[in-house]
Amino acid sequence: MSNQVFEVFVILKRGDPATHVGSVVAPDPVLALHEAKETYVRRTACVSLWVVPRSAITAFAPEDEILFQAAFTRDYRQAGYFTRHERQPVGPAPEPDGQSGETLAVSRGGAVS
Amino acid sequence: MATAPVAAAGVRPPAPEVAEDLEAFIAWLQAGGLVQAGDPMPESYRQHALRIASFQALAELVGVLLFSDWLERVPAFIRKQMITAKVQDEVGHGHVMARVAEDLGGNRLTILEDYLEGRSKLLNVFHYEFQTWPEIAVGAILQNSAAIVQFQSLVKGSYLPYVRALRKILPEESFHFHQARNLIQTLLGQRDPVVRRQLEEGLALWFPRVLAYFGPPEGERFWSNKMVQFRLKMASNEALRQAWLTRIVPVLEQLGLQIPDPRLRRREDGTWEYTEPDWEEVRRVIAGQGPASARRREQVRSIYERNRWLTEMMGIGEQHVKPGF
Ligand SMILES: [Fe+2]
Ligand SMILES: [Fe+2]
């Protein structure tokens, strides 16, 4: 029998997102589901449980994390950016207040050219 | 960057060049770095994280035998249901920890085999067994409060899958603690002098054992411990023992139980004085000379043999795919 790792997700309340809680090893999804129930939600009030073969999950590698950093430096894409500048006198658009000067320089340079 | 500020270090995986250099990796951990399964990590870190997860998996699976031994003898049906729930929890904790170990390259059968063949050792408290029903109540409250204090410290550690496992386990340990306290209250409520005496005798046996459970004070050696440098162990043995005393002494006093340690007192500075455990004796017990050491190993061996057909059929303990998440 060939086992595989199944990642386990719990839905606590109807309408809640499925949350990853851990993993089990099992030869098939039904046994995985039973083991997940015994191991992770014996004492939890929940409405559903998912098991997903780990091999079916496609994810970015840890070193790709930098790909997501840019989103945080472009603060003009976030709602908070506007409320922070609301009380400023009317004038030219406020300078982006991101922390990383280097990334900003690149993105602003790109906008100008 | 090894010198990343604490807030940032925790949310980013180690840079590959940091993971390749043990010194840099330790500095990164000390600055608040947190490790995810599948992150690049030095081999030595992987081994230490594996050791702590395997050790806890074994403790959960074997520690429960002290209680499951009593399932047939529990004097009240509701208590039998409660002890059954606790036994299920502990086995569940063993499975959760075994998964953490397996994602680090470990193997759940090896965890048992290492114990059966003497390559790994049990905590001192698992080398004993309960003689009376009231003794279980005090043994459980002392063991569980000690485990809670320890897990609350370990949960601040650097290896995230282990931390997540502890977060799942902690509320259940709290249930075991309340269960034990409630059992003591019920037993005391019977106002039976024999039962009270058995509770006090149990306390006299288990209080020094659980004091010793945290291990001898490390002194200066603490900082040279790799587990500490890797932030897999977060507090010294003595600090944990002190935290436990602060937690458990008022609970026992409130229950109206006399703590049988003549030297126990709180010093001016808030620290506790207590009777030093006989560390020679503790070492002997852990080495396998405890009153139930041999029997415990035989129990595990017979369970292991009895289920062999099943573990083989299910392919349990085979190596799994490489770690993710
Ligand atoms: Fe446990
Ligand atoms: Fe427990």
Automatic annotation (TrEMBL), chain A:
Region annotation (Disordered) ranges: 83-113
In terms of superkingdom, the source organism counts as Bacteria
Instruction: Tell me the InterPro entries matching this sequence.
Output: PaaB (IPR009359), PaaB_sf (IPR038693)
Write down the Pfam families for this protein, in alphabetical order. PaaB
Q: What is this protein called?
A: Phenylacetic acid degradation protein PaaB
TrEMBL record, chain B:
The name of this protein is Phenylacetic acid catabolic
InterPro entries, from UniProt?
Aromatic_CoA_ox/epox (IPR052703), Ferritin-like (IPR012347), Ferritin-like_SF (IPR009078), PaaA_PaaC (IPR007814)
What GO CC annotations are associated with the protein?
Answer: cytosol
**What PANTHER family does its record include?**
1,2-PHENYLACETYL-COA EPOXIDASE, SUBUNIT A, PHENYLACETIC ACID DEGRADATION PROTEIN PAA
What are the GO BP annotations of this UniProt entry?
phenylacetate catabolic process
So which domain of life are we looking at? Bacteria
Ranges that cross the membrane: none
